[in-house]
Amino acid sequence: MRAVVLDGPGPVEQLRLTRLPLPEPPPGWVRIKVEAFGLNRSELHTRLGLAQGVTFPRVPGIEATGTVDADPDGVLRPGQQVATLMGGMGRTFDGGYAEYTVVPRAQVVPFRSELPWEVLGAVPETLQTAYGSLTVGLDLRAGQSLLIRGGTSALGLVAATLAKDLGATVLATTRAAGRVRALADHGVDHPVLDDGEVAARVRAILPGGVDAALELVGTPTLPDTLAATRVHGTVCFTGMLSNRWTVPDFYPIDYLPRGVRLTAYSGGAADLPARVLQRHLDRIASGELTPGPTHVYPLDAIRAAHEDLEHGRRIGKLVVRTG
Fold first, then answer.
1. In what residue span(s) does the Enoyl reductase (ER) domain sit (predicted)?
2. Residues 6+ away with beta carbon under 8 Å from 249
């Protein structure tokens, strides 16, 4: 099979397209014929040497979408459409940047859809993270207001879609003036141009502050995001677009505004129920929901895709088609 191998941390040249033997699934594992996979910041962190617990050489990729190719236990039928994500993919065992991947059956999510593979490949990890952030991380309710810090990221756009569908008022930020219109076109109620400090702009729209905020940029903007949130409101730390996720010399009383709650979210396949994935795909197919912008690359263009990911050249999700 063709696969992308990362020999060690470094520039995009460390990503090497090569041929590997077809992997055999042991009991309890499933081999998936990968049709498409999305790119994620986690894989960029792995390539840049910022991720912990990764062994090399490694086939990266924390998600993949395709069909069951082999299940030694006969639980999943060959040809069944499935998604898989997280659980050590691309870190402790080989991940989705390949024509085939072998993963534990417990992290396989079945679905049925006639959507194109490039659309299906954009959904699993981003949906899981957005859904978990809004439900577990924020407990967002209809009628509440939500600030998304990092709104033109793939995760930010999906979070906006889910929040609007829930009945929330959505504010979302972008650092590029040329992308403000894209946020409005996506259904964001209040696009906000981000110059590093948006709390005053948010409070000009909602003087008391937002009910909830989703931090996708990282620790550099977290204090300002907290300042944009009302007393008894909640900020969920989920993303690290800045590649910075630690707070030096954290002193809670000085760092946290009085009465503002700070939570965090990370999850895996178990946090994406099959019914949630299926309903989301069905609603995209019916036109009720938009998947947002998707940019598709062939497998042999993985370096170009990673460069676009690293430098933020695209709005929305980057997807690689293996076929």
1. 10-320
2. none
Q: Where are the domains of the chain?
A: 2-123+292-321, 125-264
d(CA 259, CA 257): 6
CATH class of the domain comprising 2-123+292-321: alpha beta
Name residue 135's beta-bridge partners: none
Q: What DSSP string runs through 39-57? A: --HHHHHHHHT--SS--SS
Arch. (CATH architecture) of 125-264: 3-Layer(aba) Sandwich (3.40)
Question: What DSSP character marks residue 91?
Answer: T
Kindly give the confidence (pLDDT) of every residue in the chain, 323 residues in length, as a single tens digit, with 9 standing for 90 and above.
999 999 999 999 999 999 999 999 999 999 999 999 999 999 999 999 988 889 999 999 999 999 999 999 999 999 999 999 999 999 999 999 999 999 999 999 999 999 999 999 999 999 999 999 999 999 999 999 999 999 999 999 999 999 999 999 999 999 999 999 999 999 999 999 999 999 999 999 999 999 999 999 999 999 999 999 999 999 999 998 888 889 999 999 999 999 999 999 999 999 999 999 999 999 999 998 888 899 999 999 999 999 999 999 998 899 999 98
